[in-house]
Amino acid sequence: MKAKTRHNIAVALLCLAPLSGCVSGGGPKYISQNNVYSSKGGYNMISLQQEIEIGQHEFAKIKAKKPLTSDISKQQAARRVLNHLVKANNLQNDYPWEIVVFADNTPNAFALPGGKIAIYDGIFKYTQNDEDLAAVISHEMVHITARHATQLVSRRMSAGLVGVGPATFNGGPNTAQDPGQTLDTKTSAHIMLPYLREAEFEADRIGLLYMARAGYNPKASLRVWKRFVKSAGPCPPKTASTHPFISERIKQIEMNLPHCFGVYNNSSRS
User: Fold this and answer.
1) Does residue 270 lie within any of the structural domains?
2) Which of 17, 104, 129, 198 is most buried, taking the most CB atoms under 10 A from its CB?
3) Over the stretch 180-224, which tens digit does the pLDDT of each residue have?
4) In this structure, are residues 42 and 140 in contact, taking their beta carbons and an 8 Å threshold?
5) Successive 10-residue mean pLDDT values, the chain, 270 residues
6) Quick one: CA torsion of 159, 32, 148, 269, rounded to 10 degrees?
7) What CA–CA distances, in Å, run from 163 to 46, 231, 252, 256?
8) What sign for the dihedral angle of Cα 29, 192, 42, 203?
């Protein structure tokens, strides 16, 4: 696979990953009974093996540039929660899972194809225990298991938009510029931005079930997002936003909690 294609796929998922959002009105969905844990069957021109290679290559590059946190307890907590989520959802054999915590005060997290997840020191301002951390990690896991990045690249390829990146980056995965600056055609905006927002909704929905199945109270996701509301920044126009607004995400979580509690109550909480 060409290095440029590999990098574009990695950047696509980085564009999906940041936890920040804005506060405005609705469009959430209920969990689909036919697709409750992942959506690997979506249109995709990239193989799973290629995804794993992409993730390993790009993650190594990022780790070489960004320092890890010196707080060993945070690294241990991240690995503990990821390992429990992976085991409880029978995902051990799907990807070579890996998670790290970077020394960065930005409240952010991201995922790369093939099982690679990173969270920043700053996210711990919003998480108070393993359940809260599971809300963040499960969301990123879904971006991987649902293959959002390579589905996005496949859509761009089919639409003839291979040369148009979903975001420009300057300095790291948390510094995505206004997507309106790079999604500069009507076609790209109509095709790509709605997909990016729906991918975030899907990661929220299925992430709740990943948590519940692992015995983490899915209500923790609601707590974390409500903490984010207090620090939400100014909103871009919705037509130029890659992420649903926080209030939409909170509404969807509230809609789906009753179903998730059924899964949670039947889970093994060891």
Assistant:
1) no
2) 17
3) 333 344 444 445 566 677 788 888 899 999 999 999 999 999 999
4) no
5) 58 53 44 45 74 90 96 97 96 94 93 93 94 96 87 68 34 33 44 69 91 95 86 49 67 88 80
6) 180
7) 17, 34, 34, 38
8) negative
Helix (H) or strand (E) holding 51: helix 48-65
Asked whether residue 29 is assigned to any structural domain, the reply reads no
Residue tagged 């003839």 (tokens):
160
Of the candidates 226, 227, 243, 225, the one whose C-alpha atom is nearest the C-alpha of residue 235 is: 243
- Rounded to whole angstroms, the Cα distance separating 223 from 159 reads 39
Looking at the domain assignment, is residue 233 inside a domain? Answer: yes
Domain extent at residue 119: 3-17+42-265
Beta bridge partners of 109: 119
CB 8 within 8 A of CB 113: no
- Please indicate, yes or no, if residue 187 is contained in any of the structural domains: yes
Domain count, the chain: 1
